[in-house]
Amino acid sequence: MALLRKAAAALSAAAAALLAIPPTAFATPAPHTPHTPTTLARETFDRLPLGPVTAGRGWTTDTSDGTLTVEPSTRGGAGRELHLRTEANGRAFLVFPDLTPPGNSFWARLRLRVDAFPTAPDWAHWTIAEASGADSPTLVRPLGGQYAPTDQGNFWGVGSDLGPTGDWTSWRTSSPATAGAWQCVEFHLDATDNRVTVYLNGTEQSDLTVSTTRHGGTTDAFTFPHFDKLKLGWQLYQSDPNPSSYDVRMDDITLSTRRAGGC
To answer: pTM, whole model, 2 decimals?
Structure first.
């Protein structure tokens, strides 16, 4: 009986000790939350009124012989999209003027349709995206291309201008530019080695990658400016092109510190 009384007393003491411990001591640890990307800018055009547009939330426009218009979606559904139109060698850009990407690196994703690419003059050069910074004259063109008469087509290419590496567009026949079709396009600007990587419909176009020492310009190092502006739209640089006007449609734009995906 003495042993039973001692055992009962021990159990009572243990129970009292357990009751004295705060409940939080046994709480299940909070699940690990993975790092979520920081969205630098996003635009779907669905909240904008139909018609000509000169600015939106966090963006403005840059045009010369060009217009930007919000129109009903041509991709299906009840959404809206941006229609850019230029005449001759004009330009029409949506501009993010206050870009501050952490580490001077960021991802961009957008839906894009170009109705027609130039077939004249020879070597006609066009730009879809251009990133720049106030601290350097270098213009980085992560998305653009050129008409190559030698290969009878337009081809995507990464390029630059006004910097130490000169004016260049590193296009590749492995990445033909297809007119009249929607595509999901992405590019990554990585300041670690001044690397530009392009993806079309979710697939990396490795032949288009450029970096500090691998690019299409002079033997000088290719280096990024401190990015503070990104332009998305259309510009053709040569006069008297064929066709004489260009229609580009954009939708679902996301700028982020990590790849947004969705392609």
So the answer is: 0.85
